Amino acid sequence: MKEIPFYTTSAILSPFLLWQGLRIRKKIPRLPEATGPDFGEIPGKKPIRLLVIGESTVAGVGISDYKSSLTGQIASVLSRKTGRKIFWQAIGESGITVKEAVQKFGSRLPQKSPDLIVIALGANDVLKLNTQKKWSSELEELIGICKNKYPKVSIFIAGVPPVGIFPSLPWLLRSILGWKARLLDQASSYISLRLQNVFHVPMRKIGSIPSEGIFCSDGFHPSSEGCALWGEEIVDSIQTVLI
Does the CA dihedral 38-155-230-106 come out positive or negative? Predict the structure, then answer.
């Protein structure tokens, strides 16, 4: 998918998009991150160590605790579907881009190797109109940091959030940013084809159903129900590797 038409269209519409963006920035409420421990365990047989790294969805923005956030939901679904014991940990920061994740997350990785890493980034790169080339380079760098520390780990790149369905955004801005999200997600899928033991998990379920109930009160971040749906999709992909 070529980016030239996207940037041409964005340039033509830029004055209006900038105006809409400034209005929305003032309008969307700032929700707190999840409280409580950002790690935990679920009883079961033969343990799996799960690490999820990423942006506000991993930090649990708009959600009461980490158990109800994306990481906790992935762990819960994985436990239910496999009967395995799950040790889970979240490393997240609201507003972070993939470039900032490269700069900050390496020093926060746990010493004990996880079996699975889920990378959930992209919304902030969409908002900053990051190019496919830059996104790919920085995402590969982040994957390389993880692989250097944990050579045998399986890495799952979660789909770039479908910004085109975020109810808080006006139609035109939603359309342009949704287009950009699809471009970055396509780049993620190409990375997974090139790298060993790296898998792309496109976000099909959330992007194809009505938005009612799957977003927090800000109309921007996924609710616990939205995270549960997303977690199901990620676990479906994980199970194909665990078998």
Answer: positive
CA dihedral 131, 137, 140, 144 (to 10 degrees): -150
SS (H, E, C) 65-101: EHHHCHHHHHHHHHHHHHCEEEEEEEEECCCCCHHHH
The pair phi, psi for residue 125, each rounded to 5°, is: -70, -35
- By three-state DSSP, how is residue 40 classified? strand
Instruction: Please state, in angstroms and rounded to a whole number, the distance separating the CA atoms of residues 109 and 115.
Output: 13
Pull the structure tokens for residue 75: 């762990």
Beta strand segments in the chain, E: 39-42, 45-54, 84-92, 116-120, 154-158, 198-201
Q: Which segments of the chain have a pLDDT < 70?
A: 1-2, 4, 6-27, 207-211, 243
pLDDT tens-digit readout, 101-128: 999 999 999 999 999 999 999 999 998 8
Which positions ≥6 away from 243 have C-beta within 8 Å? none
Report how far residue 194's alpha carbon sits from residue 197's, in angstroms, rounded to the nearest whole number: 10
> Are 206 and 229 within 8 A, CB to CB?
yes
Domains of the chain in start order, with CATH, are 4-29+45-242 (3.40.50.1110)
Phi, psi of 54 (to 5 degrees): 165, -155
